[in-house]
Design goal:
Layout lengths: L13 H5 L31 E6 L2 E6 L4 H9 L6 E4 L5 H17 L4 E5 L11 H11 L7 E6 L9 E6 L5
Parallel strand pairs: 3-4
Antiparallel strand pairs: 1-2, 2-5, 4-6, 5-6
Helix pairs in contact: 3-4
Length: 172
């Protein structure tokens, strides 16, 4: 073969270096690799308008597709909380992080109702800071898409110092 010729000499040609080569006549046999499978983006809940009602220290929020009766059941504690998150004494940043994690975990574990204890703000010079922050966080993305309703908890579950949060079931 051509390799046995003087390897170091400039007279070596490409054909000599490669050896026996034959042309492929049937080019139809060469197919480009298949395109990678495109995955559909994860389904997100459609934007829903949230209806908010406030009175004194109480707040009630429900998505427009949630019946008033469901909100009444939540407010009365007839939908029992399956988990509890206590935010007492946390900074706003720590409370936000804890709420985000608790809601993600609840959705993953198919928890329907969560009791969030934010306190009444009686020891704070600025009033109930966490309570207002939690209400705002729940009404904003990404949590609003997973929310059916939330309301000030009944007295036996913390009253104005806690909120019951009703989550939508995950759709696969």
């Amino acid at each position: 073969m051509g390799r046995e010729k003087d390897r170091d000499g400039p007279s070596e040609s490409f054909a000599d270096a490669v050896g026996d080569v034959r042309r492929i006549e049937d080019r139809d046999r060469l197919h480009p690799p298949p395109e990678p499978e495109r995955r559909a983006p994860p389904r997100q809940a459609p934007d829903r308008r949230l209806l908010v009602e406030r009175s004194d220290a109480a707040v009630e929020v429900r998505a427009e597709d949630v019946p008033r009766a469901t909100l009444a059941d939540l407010r009365a504690g007839r939908i029992p909380p399956e988990r509890e998150l206590d935010l007492h004494g946390r900074s706003l940043a720590a409370a936000r992080h804890a709420l985000d994690e608790a809601l993600e975990s609840a959705l993953r574990d198919e928890i329907r109702c969560l009791l969030v204890i934010h306190g009444r703000g009686q020891r704070s010079a600025d009033g109930p800071v966490l309570k207002g922050a939690v209400e705002g966080w729940l009404q904003a993305p990404p949590h609003a898409a997973h929310l059916q309703a939330f309301a000030t908890a009944p007295r036996r579950l913390g009253g104005a110092g806690a909120s019951l949060v009703l989550l939508r079931r995950r759709r696969v």
